Amino acid sequence: MRPKFVAGNWKMYTSLASAKGLAANVAHAFGEDKRVMVAVCPPFPWLTAVAEVLKGTSVLLGGQNCYPEREGAFTGEVSPAMLKDAGCQYVIIGHSERRHGLNEGDEFLNRKAKVALAAGLKVIFCVGELLAEREASKTEAVLDTQLAAGLAGLTTDQMSKVVIAYEPVWAIGTGKVATPDQAQAAHAHIRGKIRGLFGEFTADHVQIQYGGSVKPDNAAGLMSLPDVDGALVGGASLKADQFLAIVNAALG
Ligand code: PGA
C-alpha cells in the first residue's frame, strides 16, 4: 500500500512572515496521519525559517530546485547539500516552469537528480506534456523520454527515494485540470514505464503525484484513482484551508 503524498509548491510567492504563518497553520491543522505524507516547498530564502517552524511536526520540507554540483563557483545557485543543511528532506526537480521557462533539458535534470540523491535528499521528479504534444498524441512518448533520460543511471535503491509528479503543462496554473480518465491513463503509463526501467517492486512502490490545478473540489476524485498517489499543489497550497482540504481529500 502506497501512502498518499501531498506537497505544496509555493513557487515565488509568500513573504517571510506569510511563509512562517502558512507553515505553522499547515503543521498545526495536519497533526499526524500515517496514511498521508505532507510537504511544503517554500522559496529558498525562507527554508531555514520554515524548517524552524516545522521542527517536531510531521510536515516535510522541500526545495523547489537545486544545481547539479556539490559546491563551486556557481553564482546564484543552491546545491543539494545546502538544501539538506537547511532542513529539507525533498527537492523538486524538472518542474515545467524550469523545463520550458528556463530551458532545462533531460540530461541536466538527470544530473540534478543524481547529485540530489547523493546528498541524501529525496526527489520529486516532474514530467508532463505540453498541450500541442497531447493534441499530437505524443503524451506517452514525451513521458517515456522524460522518464528514461531523467532517471537514467539511477539504481533501484536510488529510485526508492524518487517520487514522480505527473504535471500536464496545460493544466498548471490554468484551472484546466486533467479529467480522471486522462490522469489515470498517464499515471498507469508512467508506472508501466518505471516497471520496464526498474522492475516490478519499484513500480509497485513508487508514489506518483498528479499536479496541475488541483483544488479542494477536484482533489478527492483525482486521488481516488488507482495510480494517483497524491498531489503536487501550486496555487491552492498558498492558502492553508485549501491545502488542508486537499490533504484531507487524500485520506479518502
Ligand atoms: P497549480 O501548480 O496547482 O497552481 O496548477 C501546480 C504546480 O506547478 O506544481
Helix- and strand-based class? alpha/beta
Q: Assign the CATH superfamily.
A: Aldolase class I
The CATH C-level name is: Alpha Beta
**How would you sum up the global shape?**
globular
Strand order of the largest sheet: 1-2-3-4-5-6-7-8
What is the name of the CATH topology?
A: TIM Barrel
Ligand inventory: 2-phosphoglycolic acid
Alpha-carbon distance between the two ends: 14 Å
Low-confidence stretches: none
Q: What's the helical proportion of residues?
A: 40-55%
Write down how many β-strands occur, each being a DSSP E stretch of 2 or more residues: 8
- Strand portion: 15-25%
CATH architectural type:
Alpha-Beta Barrel
Q: Determine Rg (CA atoms, Å).
A: 17 Å
Q: Into how many domains do the coordinates divide?
A: 1
Give the biggest sheet.
8 strands, parallel, barrel
Order of helices and strands: EHEHEHEHHEHHHEHHEHEH
Mean residue pLDDT = 97
Question: What is the number of helical segments per DSSP (H or I, 4+ residues)?
Answer: 12
